[in-house]
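TOKENISED FOLD:
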Amino acid sequence: MLAALLARLPEQDVEGHLLLDEGEHVIDLVRKHPVVYLRPAAEAVGAVLLWVLAVVGPIQVGWLFILLGVGVLLHAGYLVLQEHRDVFVITNMRVFRASGVFSVRIATMPITRILDITVEKPFVGRVLGYGHFVFESAAQAQGLRDIRYIGDPDARDLTIQRVVQRSGLRGPRTAFERQAQDGR
């Protein structure tokens, strides 16, 4: 049911940010792990509890509990939109992150600038299947450093490594590397 509701939410315009005339195409579009929706769900439950309190509590302040419940529910809806519209995109030329509900922020890092990727998997993340990326680049201050709550982070890391390898930035693979990868 949650997936059906999320499918109706407005999407980020990822295609509009691609350099199509340069041959850029999306390799992987990564949404956040469903664990990010726990806080908005807890707020929605809190809103329902406030409405119940408005009905069974003192009638003189029932209106206050109703208004508080509406406010909490609106905030939960905003959090759902915020998490749903925060996407991480891996293309054949770069990685970028598009986020924002009312205004959009795009943070981009060319594949050529990625020096190191750290994959952090906390214990709960290992159990539930999410992790965090930390990108290191040649730039001092960068707009794309921490990407949190990525589902299946190991597969996403391998995808980025493949893109970097295919771009020729790490040099050609030697026969020894091919044998090691093939398990010979």
Q: What stands out?
A: The longest strand covers residues 130-137.
